[in-house]
Amino acid sequence: MITQPIRVSLADDHPFVLMGIKSLIESEPRLTVVSASADGEEAFREILEQDPDVAIIDLSMPKMDGMQLIRSLKTRLPGLKLLALTVHEDDAYIYQVLRAGADGYLLKRSAAEELVRAILTVWGGDRFIDPAIAAKAAEPLPASAPQILLLSEREIDVLRLLAFGFTSKEIADQLDIGIKTVDTYKSRAVDKLNLRTRAQIVRFAASQGWLADL
Q: What CATH number belongs to 147-207?
């Protein structure tokens, strides 16, 4: 439930695109723009200063490109939701951007129709892939791509806690979501990874380094 506007930062070196995205966000009462930057270095400084909920990052920018900016922000602000904005429709780009740490991938040509939904989706802990290229993202990942890319952030949270031995109710309490929602995320995650037993879940968690502190 949104009790106050979601704070959004923008980064795009095209003034008209930046203006258009800002206008779309400002027309939605659930969202507010806290910074708008025209290059990667400026975006990095302003986003660290403003600490927004969601940052929308153009992949092609001067001084620091979007991919580098995403990696840097994910390191400094791990809780920040990152939505990549791009003209690139090649599936190779999708995997690279998700691997860099982005929570969503939106095409500029779809922004007018999909921007608000994309922001709300990543803010809520799920991954957003532009519907125009979702079919590509749904295809089997290349052998070199880690399985973790299949999962949304919430699915990862639930799977990690399951591996630690928490019950659905305990996970619901920790993540402040309903038990049925926990079960939905669990079902999605195990189906995506083809995990059928708790032992398989624990082995997958161990392979990701999640159990290192046990």
A: 1.10.10.10
